[in-house]
Model the fold of this input.
Amino acid sequence: FLIHVVDRRIYHQSSPDQRTEYISALVNDLARLVEDSRIDVQGEGEYQQAFIDKVNTRSSEYARFSFSEQEGSSFAMRCELGNRVQASMGARDNKWIPDYIVGREAPEIESSVVRSLRGLVSFED
Done:
């Protein structure tokens, strides 16, 4: 979700080549972090490609939803995230998860990413 938000946020600030390079570097760095974490928990394995494949799939799914420069992700996009999180959680507590994600977590983490982007990313020549 956040990778897709970053991609949407930098779309108008960067050239297509810059955007591709930045998002690819971001995904590859995150894939390495995910692999390191999964090795610590699950043991040796090749986890990067599975992560990259999932990012590509989710990005295609999130691309169906509207996004605005001012408002960020749409309610429908946040609902999709909530449904994805709910599906990955255990059955005991998952009834409240979509509402919590849509109403609280998604806006909060998206806002945090936007603040970080302002301070870290510039595509000026």
In short: The first helix runs from residue 2 to 10.
